[in-house]
Amino acid sequence: VQLVESGGGLVQPGGSLRLSCAASGFTFSRSIMSWYRQAPGKEREWVARISPSGITVTAESVKGRFTISRDNAKNTMYLQMNNLKPEDTAVYYCNAPGTWGQGTQVTVSS
Questions:
Q1: Measured on CA atoms in the order 82, 87, 89, 90, is the torsion positive or negative?
Q2: DSSP string of 30-55?
Q3: How far lies 105's CA from each of 12, 16, 26, 49, 55, in Å?
Q4: Which among 23, 44, 79, 82 has most CB atoms closer than 10 A?
Q5: Cα separation of 26 and 38, whole Å?
Q6: Is 79 helix (H, G, I), strand (E, B) or coil?
Q7: How far lies 48's CA from each of 12, 35, 56, 101, 109, in Å?
Q8: Are the C-beta atoms of 60 and 48 separated by less than 8 Å?
Q9: Which residues of the chain have pLDDT under 70?
């Protein structure tokens, strides 16, 4: 079982990034998938979740700015992040039940 995140980087406030999570070793299309993030000195927090059929739930802190999606044919989950703020700076992790990716750093700074 493997999850590999990509797409992080440095972006200015108000900018956008799209994170990807490539999954392998399990039946992705049947799995609930989630994004979490962990800022320096803080606990890991849940960001968004998507069901196998595409039903989504998003944390209030990012609602209206972040969109979670998935492509079951490509075994890939995405997180589109718009209007990024400095407080969105964190390592972003992909999660499937019982499995975590290695994380991808997102830094929002001018």
A1: negative
A2: GS-EEEEEE-TTS--EEEEEE-TT--
A3: 14, 14, 25, 19, 26
A4: 79
A5: 25
A6: strand
A7: 22, 5, 7, 15, 23
A8: no
A9: none
Residue 89 CB-half CA count within 13 A: 12
**Nearest Cα to 108, choosing from 82, 86, 81, 79?**
86
Residue whose pair of structure tokens reads 């499995």 in the numeric block:
99
* Residue 75 per-residue DSSP state: T
Cβ-proximal residues to 92 (8 Å cutoff; 6+ apart), any chain: 5, 8, 19, 35, 36, 37, 47, 79, 103, 104, 105, 106
Alpha-carbon gap, residue 105 to 37, rounded angstroms: 9
Q: How far apart are CA 107 and CA 91, in angstroms?
A: 8
Structure token digits, residue 16: 């956008």
Other CB atoms within a 10 A radius of the CB of residue 70 amount to: 22
Q: Which residues make beta-bridge pairs with 95?
A: 34, 100
